Amino acid sequence: MARIRDIRIVALEFAVPDDQAYGMARGLTARRGGAIIVVETDEGIEGIGESWGPPRITAEYLRLVKAYFVGTSIFAQRGVAQTIFAKHYHFGIQNQLVSLLSGIDVACHDAMGKVLGLSVADLIGGRQRERVAAYASGGYFTATGNHETTLAAQLEPHVDRGFLAFKIKIGRNPAEDEKRVALARRIIGHDALLTVDSNGNYTFDGVMESIRRIAPYGIHWYEEPLAPQDWKGYAELKTRATVPIATGEALYTVFDMKRLIDGRLADVVQPDLALCGGLDVARTVGILCAAEHLRISPHVWGTGVGLAAAVHFVASLPNYPHSDNVPFPTMVEYDMGRNALQNDIFQEPIQFKDGYLEVPKGPGLGVTLNPEVVARYTVS
């Protein structure tokens, strides 16, 4: 049985000029980064995963917990992670430790698939489909230029690419939200789904005013309307909002995810596999969502490794409670922001065509890093 011989981190960063920074209501960034987690087995097989957040902090947590993993089976990563939580419970679960464990989990699944000759989708539930729907995630606030002009410039190139849905950033103030939503609707037309994301920048009263203004434009979901831990706010919002609510990208481990799902505090649950606990937790979240008849749509905003994991995860999900006719397919977030870490780091990127991402067919995640490109963006 393949055992873990070593775990290492490859820290990546892609930067744009400061005047080309882009982002959300809480702020902009000129840098995109991520930590690629590499799990090496005693048989020479390597699995890759992704850990969200600052790689230097992730590396310090790896120094703490690596000994727990070395020598164990790649199939036993779940038990090791639970042991770490039990022994180091004082550290909490909203931190880079959980992001690290998420990346290790995905890397172990990649290695498992390579050992068994199975894709991750087949490994975690059976491949239910060969391609998954993707929504165009962008519509960012920008550092320079007229915000309506830059929003249009971000949306227009993708209107004819077959996307089922588009997402734009809002959340700086309700009046501006309405202007951005009205413009987006004019550009993408009435057939495409439109979702919005305020990244938790509002208090309850601000969200209600924002919803009042934008609901007439046909909002498919309103993402992160409140801060992640505003549990009472989400409970009240669910009874008063006139648009569907989506959240979950900033929740770590199954514990907070379960609280969100059990309370039916969102219509669409959005785990991020690079920080929620990896594929193991995502599978549990998927089961819990099915039990509560809630939709799920994984958040992706890092490197292509996290995107590959999300594609395999969605490919493994059954259509329940639907059968022949699925009103809205489960969608993967496909970032339209400038980010070389998404596709350029692979020898062959995940293929996109007519609004869908093809599920890689090779063993494990089915993607291979391009060493030269990875070296170009590696930082110490």
From TrEMBL:
Gene3D superfamilies: Enolase-like C-terminal domain (3.20.20.120), Enolase-like, N-terminal domain (3.30.390.10)
GO molecular function terms noted in the UniProt entry: hydro-lyase activity; isomerase activity; magnesium ion binding
Pfam families the UniProt entry points to: MR_MLE_C, MR_MLE_N
InterPro entries: Enolase-like_C_sf (IPR036849), Enolase-like_N (IPR029017), Enolase_C-like (IPR029065), Mandelate_racemase_C (IPR013342), Mandelate_racemase_N_dom (IPR013341), RHMD-like (IPR046945)
GO biological process, one term: carbohydrate catabolic process
Necessary cofactors: Mg(2+)
Keywords: Isomerase, Magnesium, Metal-binding
Presence of keyword Heme: no
UniProt cross-references to SUPFAM superfamilies, sorted A to Z: Enolase C-terminal domain-like, Enolase N-terminal domain-like
Span of domain Mandelate racemase/muconate lactonizing enzyme C-terminal: 148-244
Protein name: D-galactarolactone cycloisomerase
